[in-house]
Amino acid sequence: MISKGGSEALLQTLVDTARTAAPDYDILLPLFRLLAKVGLRDKKFGQKALELEALDVTLILTRKNLSHSQNLLHCLWALRVFASSVTTGAMLGINGAMELLFKVITPYTQKHTRVIRAATDLLAALLKSKSNSRRAVNRGYVTSLLRLHQDWHQHDTAGAYVPIRRVLLLCLKHIAALRSGREAFLAAQGMEILFSTTQKCLDDKSLGPIVSVVLQILRQCYPKCPLPLVTASSAYVFPVPGTTTSEPPRVLTEEDFEDDGDEEEDKDADSEDVKEEDDDLETDVNKLSSRPALDRPEEELLQYEAMCLELSCSFEELESKPGDDLNSGGTQYANHHHIPTEASPKQHCSNKDQNSWEQEREDTVQTSLLSMVKKGRSPVQRASKKGPGMRPCQNAQCSGLGMDSSGSEIPDIQAFLKEDAWDIDMISCPAMNASFPSFTKSRETVEVIDKLLQTHPRHIPFHDPYLYLAKARRTKSVADFKMMAFPDLWGHCPPPSPQPLLERKCGIQRIKIFEDVQRFIQPSDVINQVVFSLDEPWQDTASNCLRFSSKFESGNLRKAIQVREFEYDLLVNADVNSTQHQQWFYFRVSRTRAAVPYRFNIINCEKPNSQFNYGMQPTLYSVKEALLGRPSWVRTGYEICYYKNHYRQSAAVAGGAPRTCYYTLTFAVTFPHSEDVCYLAYHYPYTYTTLMTHLDILEKSVNPKQVYFRQEVLCQTLGGNSCPLVTITAMPESDSTDHLEQFRQRPYQMITARVHPGESNASWVMKGTLEFLVSSDPVARLLRENFIFKIIPMLNPDGVINGNHRCSLRGEDLNRQWLSPGAPLQPTIYHAKGLLSYLSSTGHSPVVFCDFHGHSQKKNVFLYGCSIKETLWQAQSSVGSSAILEDVSYRTLPKILDKLAPAFTMSSCSFLVEKSRASTARVVVWRELGVSRSYTMESSYCGCNQGPYQGLQFGTRELEEMGAMFCLGLLILELKSVTCSRQLLSRAVALLNAEEDTLDLHLQRCSSSSSSGVPSELDDEPPCMEEIEYSPDSSSDQEGSFSELDRQIQEWAFHKDEGQEDEEGPGQGRKATP
């Protein structure tokens, strides 16, 4: 009908009929109803009405029928459809439509409410025009709307007229989109009025539509202000070599935070639909398929020959001494006068310890990795299993208080906790030089720390606090940290089972926003006392508040402000030499009181959404719990939500770009003990020193006659720390020529992790990979005998050490530097790419390259890969992809993992190549080095919504298991390849046959039941697609929907047919509530 000119015909009929001497309403009323139905579906209806002069005619009819409710109702419906075009709505405003509507919209009444509803709907549509909103401000309509809201709220006690009350608020919301509208709203005491009228309605579900709009208005009108920081730049500055020192950061002032102006003109949104195309997808086939030239002189690659001794060395050279590269030079822990001697019962890595590790790996074989694949096992059963290739947490939870791993009581632990010499603040964050001869504190303090370390439980796998102390002294930080975090020194033992996703408390976000508004309108109730700051000196004199600290490795807390007795606003530090990337936090709190709910608000987060809105909890480590035999990071917190707040980035920092909005993560914590010291973190921390300690213990735990484990220095970082490179394979069976040749011809696998320092979950996955590869699991043996693993477990040590979330010490994302890295400024990326290039030049390109990452806005574990055809198809490129030849094996590994790993899902995998990712490891290794199986593996910070772990948050055990499952996936991938040797196939068949029906499960062709999800994200962490009850920026203005106006017209027709009067009472009004 519209395409045949029906709209024009109806509008012309309206004009002709209305201009007769005595308009026939028996024709006009059904015509208005028909116009309303047709107009909502014609995107050019408003413009057509304007051109045919139907706007003027309908306005004249409206004025003539102010006292005739039925005729007036129909006129309002027609005007509502005309106003769906912003430009037409602006024209109606010019012609006095709003003044007319305020004659119709009266204070509370039970008469003609259908007309009042239509009038408020029309007014809300008109106010979407900025010119109309400015007109409303100039004519004082903000005050009028607030009075109408108060009147209807006061009298509509039964909630019969919620739709009218909601649309009145929508009118205010549209006006508040302008700065002048917000100023008028504040001047009219709008914040106080809406706060007082709504605070008692938060839990009333029937008033939910009203409360939602009130929240949006309050957040719009809350005055924007700078963060309570002296500067937006990081509190830590690193002088990058070769760059000039910049001017000191300018102190932020209120002038930097003026709200945006009203200059934007009305834009007509009713034009033809524009086809949305993902401009970020790479559609240049040459860029997708060509291999660029080497980015450095070929002779430079020779330096990496020393990192691949397995390709050229003799059998004797393979038997290198453990730690030759990383432990040479510098401070050795041998000069630690408390490191036990050969006769000491606490000897670290003694033959007894090594034998015990080997014995535990023998025990692990009984529960091999193959028995833990995704095969319908319940989460409870899975959680009770031992992790592959790692020591179980023996008796950590079940042995009772003060019990060590052997089940014997720790000597006098309870008495020790009560001794006068005990200073939990000092013990919970010990100095790096504690227990060393150069330690300057009193002898009593040294003895306390020594006594403390003697109580260290032996059940924490691959961890030793003495070695950690020694390694920590060699770790270099920008802030020159002198203290260590107790959890990193003492170690972590995972709880026996994963914790469930937190059920979101209904209305918590509403409550928090109202509390923020209450601070604004009742500032005298806020303490507002700084209790910790990296920027400003403060007096630690208050005894009635928590004590904070973050000056330790990976720590990140910049400022803490006490706002109420048990509530604190916290600000995290930006990445070093940066003004952004505030997400990772890790800090210490002391002076806790048990059974008291403390609330923490981290007010300078940057991500627009977070898994904290969908069941994720932060992590907590209690020092007292650890000393009582439960050294565990656990998920904690309740009443958690994440929402946009009123803080904004300064105009000076933004530099003309859109200014950053900040978000608040709020959560409540009840600490387990009084006078405890607890650590809180975004996710399970894993520090650089932890890694270096772990690698040393792993190296000393392997049998060097069977396992080739070599750790060496890839390069030195900008901060002066060593970036470790690990090589793992099996020793040749003998020094015969054939065995040595088989050794040298083994294909390579390359795995990297932690390029983004805040993604600590990637390190836990890497930990599981490393421990599994050196274990005695039969799958691990097969992998070592058939592959050489090159592993860079931490690509950004400096970022990890200094508490960054995403960047290096230069303030740049190292995963955007792979196209042309420089040795002086991006050394770890430069040499990682150089090593890959060297392997490629010698004919040893890795079978698989995978970079482990963490993901903050999705659940489960998944892979990103690269495909030309899928990218072109998704972009609907005109280039025919049928003629392009592509190896489709890039999908095989994720399909295998989908069937093996409980946490993995194929449905979240993507194989698109985006322009914005052209310089990432995944894309560069795929494009420049020709590795078709080049991946990023993303692990959620949160947990799973599918599979055996559905409804559970990830613990470190599940992340480590994923690392081991990845290794199993590599073996199955090789078994499915056409180049798989008969010897490996026969050994694998024998192994798999021993595990029930797993042979059929793994060797059959993976079905294509799972297809790639195709997200259109523009960064590593795409927007969260899950629905949230109260979104940070809801724009669900239902007054403009087709169905609502249709429903009103149909309802009117129904009542008309039933012969009911239009003067409906509360009963009928309630019936009209959507």
TrEMBL record:
It is found in: Cytoplasm, Cytosol. This is tubulin-glutamate carboxypeptidase. It is an enzyme of class 3 (hydrolase). The keyword Protease applies. It comes from Rhinolophus ferrumequinum. GO terms for biological process: proteolysis. Its main location: cytoplasm. The lineage of its organism: Eukaryota, Metazoa, Chordata, Craniata, Vertebrata. GO terms for molecular function: metallocarboxypeptidase activity; zinc ion binding. Belongs to the peptidase M14 family. Its cofactor is Zn(2+). It catalyses: (L-glutamyl)(n+1)-gamma-L-glutamyl-L-glutamyl-[protein] + H2O = (L-glutamyl)(n)-gamma-L-glutamyl-L-glutamyl-[protein] + L-glutamate; C-terminal L-alpha-aminoacyl-L-glutamyl-L-glutamyl-[tubulin] + H2O = C-terminal L-alpha-aminoacyl-L-glutamyl-[tubulin] + L-glutamate. The keyword Hydrolase applies. PROSITE patterns: PEPTIDASE_M14.
